[in-house]
Amino acid sequence: MPALHISEIKKYFGALLVLDGVSLDIEPSEVVAVIGRSGSGKSTMLRCINGLEKIQAGLIEVAGHRIGPQGGDLRSLRKEVGMVFQSYNLFPHLTVMENVTLAPKVVKGVDRKEAEAIAHDVLRRVGLAEKSGAYADELSGGQQQRVAIARSLAMQPKVMLFDEVTSALDPELTGEVLKTMEELADAGMTMVLVTHEMGFARQVADRTVFMHKGKVWEQGPSEELFANPQTPELRNFIAPSLK
Amino acid sequence: MIRSFGWESVEFLIRGAGWTLLLSLMTFVIGGFFALIFALLRTLGPRPVRLAIAGFIQLVQATPLLIIVFLAFYGLSFVGLHFPPMVAAGVSLAVYTTAFLADIWRGCIEAIPKQQWEAADALALTRTQQLRYVILPQAFKISLGPTVGFMVQIVKNTSVVALIGFVELTRAGQLLNNMTFQPFHVFLTVAAIYFAICYPLSFLSERLKGNRHARPAH
């Protein structure tokens, strides 16, 4: 059974059709990169997966929890799906430790001690165990993004979504975040990442999906897809990154 | 009998100031309570409720406070509800405070970026939990400056209830002036007492506005 099942989803913004029948199955421990031009629907698709955007048709299923056009069991699904945003979105009034322990405590009812133990563990994984008392504004962008990853991990999700997580970072800071993601991938996390980092998609993702005009235009094992694009749209899109 | 302005007169004014403070505090607590509910409903309630509250806020903000006071005191007695000046003063000031604070606090809630809601959403927090742990603590922090600033307005505006005979600081000044015929002594003292109450609040308000990194204690 796939970890994440997306079936024929459609999404409109007003009269504009942004997702035109997208279907994807993502296997446990699979890492899937989603690439495409701005406006191709890739970020919108990601946001639909955990219900930040409503879909107008189709079905999304994670660990037996389904959402469709009528909504669905959104909270149960979100407990299984972590999301990391382009702009980090840490809670600025809370310390790193409080950011990471908040959801386990209030959503899962984990007691303080256990939540802190989980937090120590995930912060160590992203290499920021020593920053647990800091506030977001005392951290670099790269560190903030790693805390955001830790915050998601603390909910022990089955699937992690990454929405252009390095796009807001200075180039010299993208490396540390990509490394953290690569380690997660190696540890067997199921991941869907919308990215502009073609090199990263090619090396780390098992499969790459190219979206165009609200559709899955082309997909395949990353190495193959980049080496041998079948459609002219994909060829045009990746040409600059191959130079 | 004409008395001259002396220490006894100052004591009389200070007693009046006590009523001003009490009325201000009462107004702030009661008005603040309703303002919080209104601010939340104004931002997050169903559409008809949002519109109704917006209408209430517009209406009150467009009405001179004195008219609200007169309505509460004379208007309601006309329909058979006789409020003593103390109650009429409290009710009208509370209505006025509710409208203004609700609007200030709505602005503070709306100032929290949408992404904060989304991040909390993505972590599976319920709406109430998002408010309780993520939005309100941040909104509270930015509301401190304007809220304390508005307290100054409350203190000064309690003076209008002198016109329905409630003996607070301004009314005490009027009475004293009638007894002493020394308007400069009397009203300068009255002004000095208002200043002594309001200046620390203004000062605190500015400090709170400037201190962006002030974090609420956890």
TrEMBL record, chain A:
Topology in the membrane? Peripheral membrane protein
- Cellular localisation: Cell membrane
Which stretches make up the ABC transporter domain?
4-238
Q: Does the keyword Repeat apply?
A: no
Show the GO cellular component annotation of the record: plasma membrane
Q: Please, which domain of life does this record's source organism belong to? A: Bacteria
The regions listed as transmembrane in this protein's record are: none
* InterPro entries membership: AAA+_ATPase (IPR003593), ABC_ATPase_HisP-typ (IPR030679), ABC_transporter-like_ATP-bd (IPR003439), ABC_transporter-like_CS (IPR017871), MetN_ABC_transporter-like (IPR050086), P-loop_NTPase (IPR027417)
What is the predominant subcellular site recorded for this chain? membrane
- Quote the Pfam families the UniProt record gives: ABC_tran (PF00005)
Which molecular function term from Gene Ontology is one that the record holds? ATP binding
* Keywords assigned by UniProt, alphabetized: Amino-acid transport, ATP-binding, Cell membrane, Membrane, Nucleotide-binding, Transport
UniProt lists the family membership as follows:
Belongs to the ABC transporter superfamily.
Q: What is this protein called?
A: ATP-binding cassette domain-containing protein
Q: Which organism is it from?
A: Microvirga makkahensis
TrEMBL record, chain B:
User: What topology does it adopt in the membrane?
Assistant: Multi-pass membrane protein
Species in which this protein is naturally found? Microvirga makkahensis
Is the keyword Zinc assigned to this protein?
Answer: no
Q: Where in the cell is it found?
A: Cell inner membrane; Cell membrane
Q: Where is the ABC transmembrane type-1 domain?
A: 17-205
- Source domain of life is Bacteria
Q: Which Gene3D superfamilies match?
A: MetI-like (1.10.3720.10)
CDD domains reported in the protein's UniProt record: TM_PBP2
Keyword annotations for this protein, in alphabetical order, are: Cell membrane, Membrane, Transmembrane, Transmembrane helix, Transport
Q: Which GO terms describe its cellular component?
A: ATP-binding cassette (ABC) transporter complex
Q: In which broad location class does this protein mainly occur, judging by the first location in its UniProt entry? A: membrane
Family to which the UniProt record says this protein belongs? Belongs to the binding-protein-dependent transport system permease family. HisMQ subfamily.
One Gene Ontology MF term: transmembrane transporter activity
What biological process terms from GO does the record include? Answer: amino acid transport
Metal-binding listed as a keyword: no
Protein name as annotated: ABC transporter permease subunit
